[in-house]
Amino acid sequence: MNVVVLLKQVPDTESLIEISADASDIKTDNLKWIVNPYDELAVEEGIRIREKMGSAKVTVLSVGPERTTAAIRTALAMGADEAVLISDPALEKPDPLTTARVLAAALKAVPFDLIIAGQRAVDDDSYSVPAAVAEYLGIPMIGMVLRQEITGGSIQCEQSLQEGTAVVEADLPVLLTTQRGLNQPRYASLPNIMKAKKKPLETKSLAAIGLDVAQFGPDSLKARIRSLAFPPQRKVCKMISGEAVEEKAARLVQTLHEEAGVL
Known about the structure:
Strand 8 and strand 9 form a beta hairpin. This protein is α/β, with parallel strands linked by helices. The strands form two sheets. It has a nine-stranded mixed sheet, sandwiched between helices. It has a two-stranded antiparallel ribbon with strand order 2-3. It is built from six helices and eleven strands. Helix 2 (68-78) packs across helix 5 and helix 3 (96-107) crosses helix 4.
């Protein structure tokens, strides 16, 4: 059993996000970068599958700049076996479809029976990379998985729906995406962090995976960020005071009428 985990490095959700001067991107100089939280679930699930089967191999695959190796090493320290990073100057700011195309091309050289990906990345919330990868590869995708069980050459998954759950089954190979509740990702121990430094991590260019660099770059993007802006600040909440309920109610009605203009 060969399990491939798709991983993205994203800004820490607790970081202070600032917009660049030209409003085309966020400032990245002082950001802390982490493994996308939904991808952590994917890494953990891949490791659990290997532990259950005993003979599976877990490979991490990512697209990103050189700094992405830090997130990949975290996945290796959790217990993944090896990793491949696709990094190329032409991929400075790829859109979701470009990322999916590159991942699918890289997967042609990586044996897989199961691909696990986070349902979305918490930086752009596009939700589209896993589905596009499955489409490029011509394999089924099962999204928002809460539970999975592999039997022979098939997988059965319980997936989260808007108003409940569904149990679906498909023949391998399959791509599945994670949902919170699937598992609880483990922390990497210090010995495993040290071991991760010696695990195979190969960096490849676009040319190395058979793609023409000339077909990539800003002009090839299907989606572009025109500008970024913070949402408008909400007005501060106003507390209504008073000694009795009747007094508070009267002041509330007066405030809604005179200040909010809703009555």
